[in-house]
Specification:
The structure is a single chain. With about 240 residues, the chain is α/β, with parallel strands linked by helices. The strands form 2 sheets. Strands 2-1-3-4 form a 4-stranded parallel β-sheet, sandwiched between helices. A 4-stranded parallel β-sheet has the order 6-5-7-8, with helices on both faces. α12 links the parallel β7 and β8. The longest helix is centred in the middle third of the chain and has 18 residues.
Length: about 240
């Protein structure tokens, strides 16, 4: 299968290791992975901030880059950006009254997947040959859980990792408080939500907190560091890419 990596803005600028790990896992499973260098932002921040015209330009860019490369699938280490492509693009095209754009969105969006849902739901793979001998807790990201309906796929992948001790997170489905521009527009509420999440993570006694989205991990990591909790964060892809040395 020929797969394109959609790295996302946060991955490109701050967390490239999540993208590299995604490629490592997919190539380990025998798939060819391409990285279209012309890719840019998915437009989620623009759309969420009230700039649909600017977002539409990025929608068209995404369709040009990933819709014309002959890829069987587009995989991203992000539930948030995947949800934008799969759901937000159709809404933007409809609101603009652009039927041709809507047709192009429909032709591409169904081939765009978050990593864990692609591995489990599309490839039928749970054991990716990973080894990670640490106590780990998993935080389910809101967009993946609520918009993509990615439920137990990440947990099934983690349970198959050799050496891991996977622990349960109290009130796991509660938001970490990031929410993109939400954390900027509502900082006090965001900080209160983060405090609850960080406390729950710390109470598990985990060494590592993992999630599907670098945005959530950035938020949680900041809270953990300020609390000096001694818990580090890692993207799910990094754990799946780990092997025994």
């Amino acid at each position: 299968m020929r797969i394109a990596l959609f790295i996302t803005c946060l991955g490109d600028t701050l967390f490239p290791e999540a993208g590299r790990a995604t490629v490592t896992v997919l190539e380990r499973l025998g798939h060819e992975v391409a990285f279209p260098e012309e890719q840019t932002c998915c437009g989620q921040m623009h759309a969420n901030s009230g700039y649909p015209t600017e977002a539409l330009g990025l929608v068209r860019r995404f369709l040009e880059v990933f819709g014309e490369g002959g890829f069987d699938a587009v995989v991203a280490p992000s539930g948030s950006c995947t949800a934008m492509v799969r759901h937000g693009y159709a809404r933007l095209a409809a609101e603009a009254g652009d039927t041709e754009l809507a047709r192009r969105v429909d032709a591409v969006s169904g081939r765009v997947f978050e990593l864990s849902e692609f591995l489990v739901g599309q490839l039928g793979v749970v054991d990716v040959g990973a080894y990670f001998a640490h106590r780990v807790v998993y935080h389910p990201s809101c967009h993946a859980l609520r918009m993509l309906h990615v439920a137990d796929a990440p947990l099934r992948l983690l349970r198959a990792v050799r050496g891991i001790e996977l622990v349960e997170l109290d009130e796991a489905e509660s938001c970490c408080g990031f929410g993109g521009t939400f954390a900027v527009k509502n900082p006090d509420v965001s900080a209160a939500m983060l405090s609850d999440k960080v406390r729950a993570v710390r109470d598990t006694g985990a060494e590592v907190c993992t999630a599907l989205d670098s945005s959530c991990l950035m938020q949680i990591d900041g809270g953990l560091r300020r609390m000096r909790a001694g818990v580090r964060t890692m993207h799910l892809s990094e754990i799946l890419a780990s092997v025994q040395t």
